[in-house]
Design a protein that fits this description.
The complex is a heterodimer of chains A (312) and B (199).
Chain A lengths: L18 H7 L7 H11 L19 H6 L12 H5 L9 E6 L5 E4 H5 L5 E8 L4 E11 H8 L7 E6 L21 E5 H4 L5 E6 L2 E2 L9 E3 L12 E7 L6 H5 L23 E4 L10 E2 L23
Parallel strand pairs in A: 1-10, 4-11
Antiparallel strand pairs in A: 1-2, 3-4, 4-7, 5-6, 5-10, 7-8, 7-9, 11-12
Chain B lengths: L6 H8 L1 H12 L6 H30 L4 H26 L4 H10 L1 H18 L3 H7 L1 H7 L3 H14 L6 H16 L7 H8 L1
Helix pairs in contact in B: 1-4, 2-3, 3-4, 3-9, 3-10, 4-6, 5-6, 6-9, 7-8, 9-10
The chains are: A alpha+beta (312), B mainly alpha (199).
Catalytic activity (chain A): L-methionyl-[protein] + a quinone + H2O = L-methionyl-(S)-S-oxide-[protein] + a quinol; L-methionyl-[protein] + a quinone + H2O = L-methionyl-(R)-S-oxide-[protein] + a quinol
Subunit structure (chain A): Heterodimer of a catalytic subunit (MsrP) and a heme-binding subunit (MsrQ).
EC number (chain A): 1.8.5.-
Chain lengths: 312, 199
């Protein structure tokens, strides 16, 4: 399947959804007076976001689901811990280091780094390795844009990512026993990183990213399990060899480097054949069949010739 | 005070968490994934009641507190919660998809350990009545009910296998279970001495 890279073509003004309609469509304004006021306050200044052809037309989860049900072990292992504890994290100032096998390594102040970039909305399915899923309207830009700016050298084959390590503000990093050898690390093959579906997100639902969702900058790779979406990124390094990644360091037979969503390859602890869509059906929700590559079939060509059973 | 606390009240109070968890799930108060919340809550209470039942003997032996008359209620509550936990797993979590449930129980350690634990609890619940104690005889009954020890170990193993990495909570429960079983290995003093100590 051919993918149109949305950033390469101008968006017709007729395609741009007015912000008020966009918000109404998701019933966010009804979510509560406080939220409603919050949105009203910024809607006068924010520009409408172009709609990407890479977005799913499935109904996004409620904002409260997306911001209240998180795996972000830097703030605790419970699903509601990040929402409770992430407020202490200071995301300003924020420095993003891009280094390794690049011609232009640099430490960027995040605002400067983001200035030349155009943010766009991407509504993606998110499948957690634990067997649940959500639909999330991210706001972000292709990771390829960030990598290109650093001018990778020909020897660069992988991208390594690192989360902030700041135990003073991230209570989970002080926790016992140590769940993860901090800092959290992730990695992508360079062709995966350059794929147009792969984005760095700075917001969701048209607003800046809440801390518990990985503010101020996080990775989103919609055809991989959610744990690949490293949060609160401080460093991006181009490397020649496959970098170590946190969950495969903890359990190499449970979590692989690729971590592509694959209903045919079980996690050793539980089946991956089905998933439960969060926020739908309440106590009597039906499971959905999990799709290969989480339904993002266009990425299959990245893995032709690779045994996905061995390279899980 | 303790003597006056009726056994039926233990059952009454014992079911409060189940009713609360189900109510919270129905009314949307248990968060974005009410099925998982209910399932986990029922399992956790099954484990808590099991450990509570296992506290009775050490409390009597080492602290001189006799709660023996509540032990059956605690054990049965544990079984009821384990059964409800299993029902939530097959019905709510897996929509009675028997093929998938069967695969999961055969192939996944957390599921078959949990299943084995529930199977061990069934004969204990079935022989919990005074009539059954009489029919089996005290000696046989006591021997049969030692199955609660492997059941407790399976219960905490089930918890550990169901989570990612090594978070603290299941390890604390595992520590409690192992400690409660280890207390039973303490050398027994002669009966008269023990009674004198407790008097």
């Amino acid at each position: 399947m051919l993918i149109r890279v949305s950033t390469d073509r101008p968006v017709a003004s007729s395609e741009i959804t007015p912000r008020a309609a966009w918000l109404n469509r998701r019933d966010v304004l009804g979510a509560g007076a406080a939220l409603g006021l919050g949105f009203a306050g910024v809607s006068a200044t924010a520009a409408p976001t172009p709609r990407s052809p890479l977005s799913t037309d499935e109904k996004p989860n409620r904002l409260s689901d997306i911001t209240g049900y998180n795996n972000f072990y830097e703030f605790g292992v419970g699903k509601s811990d990040p929402a409770a504890n992430a407020g202490r994290l200071k995301t300003r100032p924020w420095t993003l280091r891009i280094d390794g096998l690049v011609d232009k390594p640099a430490d960027y102040a995040l605002e400067d780094f983001l200035k030349p970039l155009t943010l766009e909305e991407r509504i993606y399915r998110m499948r957690c390795v634990e067997g649940w899923s959500m639909v999330i309207p991210w706001l972000g830009f292709p990771l390829a844009d960030a990598i290109s700016r650093a001018q990778p050298q020909s020897a660069a084959k992988y991208v390594a990512f690192e989360t902030l390590y700041r135990p003073d503000e991230m209570s989970g990093q002080r926790g016992f026993p140590r769940i993860i050898p901090w800092p959290y690390r992730e990695g992508l093959r360079l062709d995966e990183a350059m794929h147009p579906l792969t984005i760095l997100a700075t917001g969701l639902y048209g607003e800046p990213l809440p801390n518990q969702n990985g503010a101020p900058l996080r990775l989103v790779v919609p055809w991989k399990y959610g744990f690949k979406g490293i949060k609160s990124i401080v460093r991006l390094t181009l490397v020649a060899e496959q970098p170590p990644t946190s969950w495969s360091m903890i359990g190499p037979d449970e979590y692989g480097f690729f971590a592509n969503v694959n209903p045919n390859v079980d996690h050793p602890r539980w089946s991956q054949a089905t998933e439960r869509r969060i926020g739908e059906g309440g106590l009597f929700a039906k499971r959905l069949k999990t799709q290969m590559f989480n339904g993002y079939d266009s990425v299959a060509s990245l893995y032709s010739g690779l045994d996905l059973r061995a390279n899980y | 005070m303790r003597r006056n606390f009726p056994v039926w009240a233990v059952y009454g109070l014992g079911f409060v968490p189940a009713v609360a968890a189900f109510g919270a799930g129905l009314s949307g108060l248990s968060g974005p994934d009410p099925i998982r919340a209910l399932e986990q809550s029922l399992g956790l209470w099954a484990l808590r009641f099991l450990l509570a039942a296992l506290c009775v003997t050490p409390l009597r032996r080492f602290a001189g507190v006799n709660l023996l008359r509540y032990r059956r209620a605690l054990g049965l509550l544990s079984f009821y919660y384990a059964a409800l936990h299993f029902l939530a797993f097959i019905g709510l979590d897996h929509n009675f998809d028997w093929a998938e449930i069967g695969r999961e129980i055969v192939k996944k350690p957390y599921a078959f350990i949990g299943m084995a634990c529930l199977l061990l609890l069934i004969p204990l619940a079935a022989t919990s009545s005074n009539g059954m104690i009489k029919r089996l005889g005290a000696k046989n009954w006591t021997r049969l009910h030692r199955l609660v020890y492997p059941a407790a170990l399976l219960a905490v193993a089930h918890f550990i296998f169901a989570v990612k990495s090594w978070p603290l909570e299941p390890l604390l429960y595992a520590g409690a279970a192992v400690s409660l079983l280890a207390l039973r290995l303490a050398p027994k003093k002669s009966r008269s001495l023990e009674q004198a100590g407790n008097a």
